[in-house]
Amino acid sequence: MSSSHGSGAPAPHSSPARRPRVAVVGASGYAGGETLRLLAGHPGVEVATVAAHSSAGALLSQVAPHIDLGHDPVLAETSVDTLRGHDVVVLALPHGQSGQIAAALRVEDPDVLVLDLGADHRLESAEDWNDYYGSEHSGTWTYGMPELLLAEGTRQRDHLVAAREIAVPGCNATAVSLALAPLLRAGLLDPAQLGAVLPVGYSGAGRAAKQHLMFSEAHGSASPYAVGGSHRHVPEVLQNLRRATGKDDQRLAFTPVLVPMSRGILAVCTAPVAEGTSTADLLAALQADYADEHFVTVLPEGVFPSTGEVAGANTLRIGAVVDRRSGQATVISALDNLVKGTAGAAIQSLNLALGLSETTGLTRTALAP
Questions:
Q1: pLDDT per residue as tens digits for the range 319-364
Q2: Same domain membership, residue 113 and residue 132
Q3: Domain that residue 123 falls in
C-alpha cells in the first residue's frame, strides 16, 4: 500500500481528538448518579467534573461507591464557576432549580451543550407550567425523545442533531407517550378516554423522598400518589400526543402507583378502540412507528413486557391487545425509569447533539434477575 508521504517513511502520528469534557451536577441523586454510571463507560466523552449540593466536599466513593471513573473525585459545589469551561453540562437537579443556573451558563458560553434532567424546560406552555409547578416558566428546550414520530412526518431525533439545550423527558411520560402515540395517530383509539395506571419503582420518587419512607411502609405495599390528574407528567404526555397527532382532543386519566421494587415502570394504558379494530391492527401501527428503532421493541401478539426484562437496559418494550368483550385496547409498556426513562434518554440525546452514534455507551441488555 502506497504512502501519501512519498518516501515510504511512516506517516507521523496524529494526536487523538480531544473528547468532550462533561460536568454532571446532582451526581448524588438517583438520576444524576445513573447518568454518571453510564458516562463512566462512554468512550466518546470524558467526565471532568462531578458536582452536588448537600454532598459537596464528599468523595464520590462515599455517595456512589458503585461508580468507578478511574479516580475518586471530590464532589464540587454546584455553581457557574464550577461548570465553566466544559463542553457538556448535565443538570440533575430538583424541579425548579435548573432554570437559573442554565440561563447563567448560556450567557457565559452559548456553545456549551446543556442537558436538563429536571422538568424546567420540557413544557411548551407557560400556563401548564404554572398550573402544575406554581413558579415562573424557564422556557422550552429541544425535547429529548428521539423516537417520537411527529405529525408532520419527522421524528424528534431530527431536532436533536446539533442541539445545544435539551430537556430530558420524564420517565412516566416516555412510557405512556411512546405506547399511545402511534395508535392515536392511526385513529385506532378514542382520544377522549385514555387511561394509564403505572406501577413505579421507589427510585421514581427521587432519593430525597425515599429517605423519608420507612422500610416497613414500603415493603409489601403498593401506594398510589398524585391521583386525580395532579401528576406533573400529565401535561407533558398530552403535549407529546398533540405533537404526534397534530390534534388537541386527548384526555388522559393518569394514576402512578409506588410498588416495592427499586426501579422500573409498567405503564398499563387503556382506551376504547374504533369499531372493527383488532389486536393485529394495534401491533401493526406500533411496528410502523418502531420497526427501525434500536431501543424500542414491539412484542408479538400475546406477549407482554415486565420490568425485569428492562432493568438496567436502555429499552422500552411494548405489548398490546384488544379486549373484544369490552371494546377496549390494553397497551402495556415497560422501561427502567432510571435508564430509558432518564439517564439513557439523556445519553441518546447527548450522542445525537455531539454527532456520535446514538447507541454509544448504551445497551439493550438487562441485568440478570
A1: 999 999 999 999 999 999 999 999 999 999 999 999 999 999 999 9
A2: yes
A3: 21-168+341-354
Q: Is residue 142 located within the same domain as residue 184? A: no
Is residue 212 very low, low, confident or very high in pLDDT (cuts 50, 70, 90)? very low
Biggest CA–CA distance in the chain, Å, is 81
Residue range 7-53, pLDDT digits in tens: 333 444 444 578 999 999 998 899 999 999 999 999 999 999 999 98
Give me 218's grid cell.
Answer: 414500603
Q: What is the DSSP string of 13-47?
A: PPPPPPPPEEEEESTTSHHHHHHHHHHHT-TT-EE
Same domain (yes/no): 119, 221: no
Instruction: Give the mean model confidence (pLDDT) for residues 121-149.
Output: 97
Total of domains in the chain: 2
Check if the beta carbon of residue 306 is closer than 8 Å to that of residue 321.
no
On whether both 25 and 111 belong to a single domain, the answer is yes
- Based on DSSP, count helices (H) and strands (E) in the chain, helices before strands: 12, 14
Does any domain span residue 252? yes
Q: 136 and 179: one domain?
A: no
Domain annotation covers residue 1: no
146 shares its domain with 221: no
Helix (H/G/I), strand (E/B), else coil: 338: coil
Active site residue 171: yes
Nearest-angstrom CA–CA distance, 232 and 269: 17
Q: Is the pLDDT of residue 214 over 90?
A: no
Averaged pLDDT, 60-86? 94
DSSP 187-251: T-B-GGGEEEEEEE-GGGG-HHHHHTS-HHHHTT--EE-STTTT-TTHHHHHHHHHHHHS-----
Looking at the structure, do residues 245 and 113 belong to the same domain, yes or no?
no
Q: Which residue in 171, 283, 311, 322 is the catalytic one?
A: 171
Quick one: cell of 349? 440525546
Pair (149, 135) in one structural domain: yes
- Answer yes or no: is 359 within a domain: no
User: Out of 17-21, 88-92, 202-206, 242-246, which region has the weakest mean confidence (pLDDT)?
Assistant: 202-206
pLDDT band at residue 72 using 50, 70 and 90 as cut-offs: very high
